[in-house]
Structures are given as structure tokens and as C-alpha cells.
Amino acid sequence: MTLLDTLNLSYPIVQAPMAGATTPELAATVSNFGGLGSLGSGMTAPDTLTSQIDTIKSLTDRPFMINLMVLSEQDCMTFDTAIPAWLSQYYQDNNIEFALPERPAQSFEDQLQVLFDNPVPVASFTFGIISAEQVQRLQSLGTRVIGTANHPLEAKAWADIGADAVCVQGVEAGGHRGGWLPQSESDPLGLLTLMSQTRACTDIPLIAAGGIMNSQAIKAIQAAGAELAQIGTAFLTTDKCGINDIYKQALLDASQDKRSSETRLTRLFSGKLARGLLNDYLRDFAQFESADKLPPYPHLNAMTKFMRAHASKNSDAEHLSLWAGQGVALVKQESTLRLLERLVKEL
Prior knowledge:
The chain has 347 residues and is an alpha/beta fold. The protein is 40% helix and 14% strand.
């Protein structure tokens, strides 16, 4: 049985679960079209997540996916590093008030409990791996489980605990890298290489992510062995996406040669490698880029949010995290439905 059948989809399209960018309305629109709409919920409080799941269920009777970030309770609960001196100085120089929150991130365990209490058709996970017992509990509730991998060994780990599928995320992908093993950072693999090496060590169904912007790319990854295409960057400039106008305009400018479309993998915003458009912040603080000079995720992410909020308030794209994949030059300002129609037109 194919993933299309297993997930009850009409088209081999998964809308990527981009935390902070996706909305219940976006997810429902994609699901109603026949793809798999997704909500990136890794930064969402449990009570809000419950409400958002209920909203999606009210907007569609088709399958949809909730994505969570796998973090330890230690990572979620306490700050064990100080704010970097250069970031503190930036705040002082720009008169930006900052006070670290009580905790750096939402409790993953509490978020996962929401999915046990309010089951969803599909749950996916990034930044780590859950236990076989947690996979089985979700599946017993009717939830299909999808892991994220940047390395073949991560995909095999998901297969070994009984996941229904794994999303292999190539180095081309925008936003945060989903893997957790050191190998996935030391030698990042392009999507087609990652797929071929993954297929050599496991036969778990594959969803491909990274640089997929049109129907030609979807057909290419299907020919290479993936059953579904996960697409993120292309959705960012559509009407149902939740990003702010400054971010959206920067992406459109990159597609119209009004700014560079160069992207870069960086830890400077969150402490975890993520791909976004090159801007002044990444240039100015590049000397601090190495992992041993930065607090880890989610600590640095909580520390830089004041800069990002100030930048958003002041229409300053140069100090926002402009997450985007290497296909950003192909984005268009269009409705979500129009994008979906374009993606399936030639399949």
C-alpha cells in the first residue's frame, strides 16, 4: 500500500509544517485540496495546540498533520547558559529591552500529551526521536507517525521503532534541520544523495523535502524513490501563510532580483542549524557562528526573539530570521489554491 493510500491523499503533496509560519487555515486548505496540510506546533502552548487542532477539524474532514519538536525536559525547562555578550551589547546599542522568559521552550511532553488526548490523523516529529512505545500509543489512537531525517542512520532509527514513514530533508531545505545525530551536521547531504543512501539501509516509505518548488521537482523525487514531496518555501508567499509582510516581501524581492536570493545555513538565530536568506545580521555576527560559541537550541532562540520582535515592529528584514530554501528564487505571490493547482497540473 502506498502512502497516498495509507494517508488517504489525492495528491503526493505535503505542505511542510513550518513553525511560526503555518496556520490552521493553511493546513485545512491544503488538506481539502487533497494534499496533506500541516501545522508546525513545536513552539505552541499545549492549550493553544488543542484549540488549533479543533479548528482544523472544524475546517476539514481530510487528513492533516501536527508537527512537534522533540526536546528534553531539561532543554525546555531551564537556561544553562548566559546570553552572549555580543547579543547583549546589540540590545543595549539599539535600546531594546529584554528579559529572558522563565523557560526557553514549551514542554514537549505536555505537547505530546495533547496528541494522546486529542488524536490527529498524522503526527510528525523533528529535532529528535521518540520511543517505540510512544509510536505504538499514537498508532493505537489511529495516528500515523512520521519522523524527520537528515542522515540515513536517522531514517533507519525511525524505521526501527515502527514509524509509518520518514521525511528525508536534504541540505537544500529552508528552516531548521530536522536531524539530531552528529553525522547529519558534519557532512550535510543533498536530497537525492540522502534518498539513495537511505533507500540502501531501509525500505521505510520516504517523503522528500528540500528545494522542491514545482511539478518537475515532484516527479524527479518520485523517480528517485520518494512517495510524497514535502514543500515549504513555495507556500510562504501564499495568502494562507502566517508570516508577516516584511518577511514575505523579502522572499518576493529575492525572486525578483531586488535582493540576493543567496541562502545560508546558520545557528545565529536559534542555536540550531537552519537555512534562510542572507541578511545583515548573519553578515555582522558571522564570527560567532561556530557551535561552541553559541548557546544551543532552544536557548539562543529564546534569547534572540527580542531582536526579531523589534525588527518586525520596525519593518527591518535585516534582523529577522528569513527562513527559506534554496528554491526561494521561484516563489510567487499567489493564493494557496493557485499554488496547489500549479503543483499538480503536470503530475
